[in-house]
UniProtKB/TrEMBL annotation:
<comment type="similarity">
    <text>Belongs to the peptidase M20A family.</text>
</comment>
<protein>
    <submittedName>
        <fullName>M20/M25/M40 family metallo-hydrolase</fullName>
    </submittedName>
</protein>
<dbReference type="Pfam" id="PF01546">
    <property type="entry name" value="Peptidase_M20"/>
</dbReference>
<keyword id="KW-0645">Protease</keyword>
<dbReference type="InterPro" id="IPR002933">
    <property type="entry name" value="Peptidase_M20"/>
</dbReference>
<dbReference type="InterPro" id="IPR036264">
    <property type="entry name" value="Bact_exopeptidase_dim_dom"/>
</dbReference>
<dbReference type="InterPro" id="IPR047177">
    <property type="entry name" value="Pept_M20A"/>
</dbReference>
<keyword id="KW-0378">Hydrolase</keyword>
<dbReference type="InterPro" id="IPR011650">
    <property type="entry name" value="Peptidase_M20_dimer"/>
</dbReference>
<keyword id="KW-0862">Zinc</keyword>
<dbReference type="Pfam" id="PF07687">
    <property type="entry name" value="M20_dimer"/>
</dbReference>
<feature type="domain" description="Peptidase M20 dimerisation">
    <location>
        <begin position="212"/>
        <end position="356"/>
    </location>
</feature>
<keyword id="KW-0732">Signal</keyword>
<feature type="signal peptide">
    <location>
        <begin position="1"/>
        <end position="21"/>
    </location>
</feature>
<keyword id="KW-0479">Metal-binding</keyword>
Length: 461
């Protein structure tokens, strides 16, 4: 055995807990190697995007693992590509189980990082590099788990489809295409959502799975005027009119909302907190109209997105010359809309709040569609709870809602239940997704493979 491979296996063995000691060392080594190779591909939107090459690499790994090449498609789209691979089950009439994720990443400038973001490094128990958290390591762990299952002789009853999009971080055109292609799925496991929290001492605190996400929307506010010379001011100044509307919208808070899923989240999350925050979570779960509870949660960046629709001005532009009255002024208001609420209703509410007749509102959203929460299916909840119990015994498991957007949106739009189900645990202080010096503990690899093996097996029978 080459020295480098031996050192990787010894490193992973040292990290394994007793509950993980039965893990497959070959699968663990493959997952780490695959994650490192994936990080080295600069799969960033724009010139030089290496997403097509990365998809080809993943295809080669799957073929080497026994998935027929004829059942793997890499489809180019604009400057990117997406991959769909099918492990055929014994019952061709059964709807497939889809494992969904993405392989593109947010831009990272090497000059800003302590290490080159596209040169993977394992140091002090962490894998460093763009995509280490979001989400190349998870993709590698899930792929290695599937290939381990195949190597061990497992045969699913329903097809297992592995689908990696190539522009989830930007336009989501590949995400939409995949969901359209797989809209007959039984359910989707989105490995780009959910996950566990390590306490600052490194002990697992809790685990959540995502059963819903908020709808992304952008609304343009625009005022147009004839303009004129700045030496002759008029009351109907486009910038002033727009500013008044933007200020009112910025100060506005939508009526708080709760669903069965978010009520369960706050009830269970309260058990992980203390003091005022825990009390506010319990009070809000009992009564979303509790003003004191709403005030506490709204002031907390981690929870303000969980209590209802939020809208915030994100861009402004106005005027055409230093010495002229503005002919046009525009602003963008970005909203994250509570599941089940229609974007048109939110835009109408913003128009009422803005209260400026001269301001025209327009929905300019791209790459997003409305979606409702997925049902809390008993088979999924039981399977994810069982998988976590095997790998992180005693860790509380409960549902959550994502305030951001993911590929799940497109499946839910087609009424396919989709659940964020990543097994990765990370400290709050270590979460640098989309930020500088992204890193994830490599001690997630062994339990992650065991977790995915259990989950994929249970839901593909």
């Amino acid at each position: 055995m080459p020295a480098t491979r031996a050192s990787v296996l010894l490193f992973l063995a040292a990290l394994a807990t007793p509950a993980q000691a039965q893990g497959d060392r070959a699968a663990e080594a493959q997952a780490l190697d695959m994650a490192k190779r994936a990080i080295a591909f600069r799969s960033v939107a724009g010139p030089g995007n290496q997403m097509p090459q990365l998809a080809d690499y993943v295809r080669s790994v799957l073929v080497a693992g026994g998935i027929p090449a004829a059942d793997i498609a890499v489809t180019p789209m604009d400057d990117t590509a997406y991959l769909v691979a099918r492990w055929r089950g014994s019952d061709p009439k059964a709807k497939p189980l889809v494992i969904s994720g993405h392989l593109d990443v947010v831009e990272a400038r090497p000059s800003d990082w302590q290490r080159d973001p596209f040169t993977p490094v394992v140091e002090n128990g962490y894998l460093y590099g763009r995509g280490a958290t979001d989400m190349k390591l998870d993709a590698a762990i899930a792929t290695a788990a599937l290939l381990k299952m195949k190597r061990d002789g497992y045969r699913p009853r329903r097809d297992i489809v592995l689908a990696f999009s190539g522009d989830e971080e930007t336009r989501m055109k590949t995400s939409a295409a995949i969901a359209e292609q797989l809209k007959n799925a039984e359910l989707v496991l989105n490995i780009d959502g959910g996950g566990g929290r390590y306490a600052e001492d490194g002990k697992p605190q809790f685990f959540t799975w995502n059963g819903a996400e908020k709808t992304y929307a952008d609304f343009e506010l625009a005022v147009t005027n004839p303009g004129g010379h700045s030496s002759a001011p008029r009351p109907d100044n486009a910038i002033v009119q727009l500013s008044r509307a933007v200020e009112r919208i910025g100060a506005y808070r939508f009526t708080p909302q709760v669903s069965d899923l978010t009520r369960t989240f706050f009830t269970e999350a309260a058990k992980q907190q203390t003091g005022e925050l825990a009390a506010a979570m319990r009070a809000f779960a009992a009564d979303p109209k509790d003003e004191q509870a709403v005030a506490v949660l709204a002031a907390n960046p981690a929870y303000v997105g969980q209590i209802g629709t939020t809208c915030v001005p994100t861009m402004v532009s106005g005027g055409h010359a230093l010495n002229a009255l503005p002919q046009r002024a525009t602003a963008n208001v970005n909203c994250r809309i509570f599941p089940g609420v229609k974007p048109a209703a939110v835009m109408a509410e913003l128009k009422r709040v803005g209260n400026e007749p001269a301001v025209a509102f327009r929905d300019v959203t791209e790459g997003s569609v409305p979606n409702d929460a997925s049902p809390m299916r008993r088979d999924f909840v039981a399977a994810v709870t069982r998988a976590l119990a095997k790998t992180r015994p005693g860790v509380p498991v409960f549902p959550s809602m994502s305030a951001g957007a993911s590929d799940s949106m497109w499946f839910r739009y087609h009424n396919v239940p989709s659940y964020g189900a990543s097994p990765t645990f990370i400290k709050e202080a270590d979460d640098f997704s989309h930020g500088l010096n992204e890193r994830t503990p490599v001690d997630n690899i062994a339990p992650g493979i065991a977790y995915y093996t259990s989950l994929f097996t249970d839901l593909s029978r």
